[in-house]
């Protein structure tokens, strides 16, 4: 698990740097890497995209009520 977490952290930093440098191609590349490793991390923890979608939907509904 530590290796997966290290990759998520590494790719997060690389994505931030790409955005800071306003490099469109690098933003796409690094974001792809980040999303891939995030999906690996979620799968390793038995978290589904349906669960993530449900959480986002609930948050959106709460924002509409506020």
UniProtKB/TrEMBL annotation:
Keyword Nucleotide-binding included in the entry's annotation: yes
GO biological process terms held by the UniProt record: L-histidine biosynthetic process
Organism: Methanosarcina barkeri 3
Superkingdom of source: Archaea
InterPro entries for the chain: HisE, PRib-ATP_PPHydrolase-like
E.C. numbers: 3.6.1.31
Name of the protein this chain belongs to: phosphoribosyl-ATP diphosphatase
UniProt GO molecular function: ATP binding; phosphoribosyl-ATP diphosphatase activity
Pathway where it operates: Amino-acid biosynthesis; L-histidine biosynthesis; L-histidine from 5-phospho-alpha-D-ribose 1-diphosphate: step 2/9
Enzyme kind, highest EC tier: hydrolase
Keyword Amino-acid biosynthesis included in the entry's annotation: yes
UniProt keyword list: Amino-acid biosynthesis, ATP-binding, Cytoplasm, Histidine biosynthesis, Hydrolase, Nucleotide-binding
Catalytic activity: 1-(5-phospho-beta-D-ribosyl)-ATP + H2O = 1-(5-phospho-beta-D-ribosyl)-5'-AMP + diphosphate + H(+)
CDD domains per the UniProt record, alphabetical: NTP-PPase_HisIE_like
